[in-house]
Design goal:
Rossmann fold, five-stranded parallel beta sheet, alpha/beta, 310 residues, seven-stranded parallel beta sheet, homodimer, 2 domains
């Protein structure tokens, strides 16, 4: 079998090729830009492919997204239709996401940004905060990652609500569904965690109208995709005090441009798309197993639904 | 019944008196410094009493520590012998401590101090860290607070070891006991959490010899008492790279003096004894119930062992 690999960073692309060659002996694994015979390529393993990259492969059997989301693949306007897309999810990635969500919800809950600011001015600062049992946290998106994040927060003692496109059961979590459930989900939410897939329906969902329905001074954590957020609306909500703080892991352009105003805003904590960073070691094992399973009989657990967008 | 209340801050002392009067109708509750007839005082409710404060009360039936530790009561060299000491513990306080420990272990685990430093210089920083399942965290002290902290960390996925004076069972936690178990406990520990009671045996236990036995670059979290730590040894271990970071909630002198070098050390995060801060609302309910139980028949769940020191 022949596999073409693409990531924007050529060094990281080479790292992934090395790992996949070890795990799939007998397969041809090469960087997409080095492919000599496009018609021979069976599979493409990609992160943020360029428009037209995949259309070159006339006999492509499946595309593998190096990540849980497939939005970066669907963004290719010349994407071959009907070719299955396989997501990359696994215990390691959900573990990393639950750590990230627990960490940043606790940081906002316990007022750490204000504590660090107090230390910087040498002030003995004892904020009055409720225990987690008196704090309402809302998780938007209850897929693989969202469900685990929500149950982790509930186990830490938080009052957790969840919001998803369709009704579902998550133990210990009060679930609201669909557009009709959004108001009840947002009302009283003091810390909002976004883990939605990026689709036309969810693009720009973190906007002024939504922020206005949260508890005053709420904190926002966006660990999904940059285009979920309307950047100007975030700054306006922080200026108005409607939001108190935000932690962002994802941005419209990544890496976040040097001159972006988010970098120096004391109300915004920036992490560099590390919430659930896939390392080639763990990620390649998941991808090799998925390719092996799919190649055997066309079935794989992590098949995405391109029409639905995730 | 007559109760004398003492806290170093007179305003906070008055707050506690107000709360306790509401919860113990018919009892006389007054600030210790306002007591006219010391022989009539049945109970003292105190945080850091001054030497001699309690010896004035010839007919004292019990002393209540406003806190889980009793070291601040035992520090009184003229403390009346044989008077029972009642600790203040409860679900609210263990909840707050588990939040604090989870937050700060996750902060060090996910390299947040370095991430914030990267943001300050506008750098897109993606540190390589293992998932929690590959990170060894050690909890010293497995009393009420330590046990809950350890099981909370295990539920988040960490490899958790615990150390206590005597052997005990904590689900999901590898427990080492006594002086003979300390080496095995410390070896490989990457994040160390101190929740020991302060006794003559544990004073100064966080010292150069102990730091040298941890994994190189380990993080220290002290949420117990300031005198557990040898301040100079901490700075030397940070300078040598033996420790990478520290988060301190407690200090030899509190509030931490304005000119203390810890304030400006970028490797040290300071919180103002807020790990498990007792608010008068919740704390007074626990204390009123304990006083009520003790006064009825001399039994109460949270009786300390003065000889043992906790």
């Amino acid at each position: 079998m022949s596999v073409a690999v693409y990531l924007p960073n050529p060094d990281r692309c080479e790292d992934w090729c090395v790992m996949l060659r070890e795990l799939l002996p007998g397969w041809t694994i090469e960087p997409l830009d080095a492919v000599q015979d496009p018609a021979a390529v069976d599979y493409a393993v990609v992160w943020r492919p360029r428009t037209g990259d995949l259309a070159r492969f006339a006999n492509l059997k499946a595309t593998v997204s190096i990540g849980a989301g497939i939005d970066h693949v669907l963004a290719d306007t010349s994407l071959p239709q009907g070719v299955p897309i396989i997501r990359t999810v696994g215990a390691d990635l959900t573990q990393r996401m639950r750590e990230y969500v627990a960490l940043h919800v606790l940081r906002h809950h316990r007022d750490m940004p204000a504590m660090l600011a107090a230390q910087a001015r040498g002030a003995w600062f004892q904020p009055v905060v409720p225990p987690a049992t008196g704090r309402r946290v809302g998780v938007m998106g209850l897929g693989n990652l969202g469900k685990v994040a929500a149950t982790t927060l509930a186990a830490l003692g938080f009052q957790v609500t969840g919001w998803a496109r369709t009704p579902r059961e998550v133990p210990g979590v009060e679930v609201h569904a669909g557009v009709e459930g959004l108001d009840a989900f947002l009302a009283g939410t003091e810390i909002l965690v976004n883990l939605l897939p990026l689709t036309p329906e969810t693009t720009g969902i973190l906007n002024a109208g939504l922020f206005a329905r949260l508890a005053p001074g709420a904190a926002l954590i966006n660990a999904a995709r940059g285009p979920h957020l309307v950047d100007d609306d975030l700054v306006a909500a922080l200026d108005a005090g409607q939001l108190g703080q935000a932690t962002l892991d994802v941005f419209h352009v990544e890496p976040l441009p040097k001159d972006h105003r988010f970098w120096t805003d004391p109300r915004i904590t920036i992490t560099a798309h590390t919430a659930s960073l896939i390392d080639p070691g763990t990620g390649a094992r998941i991808i090799a197993r998925n390719l092996h399973d799919f190649d055997r009989d066309g079935t794989v657990a992590d098949l995405a639904d391109a029409a639905r967008g995730y």
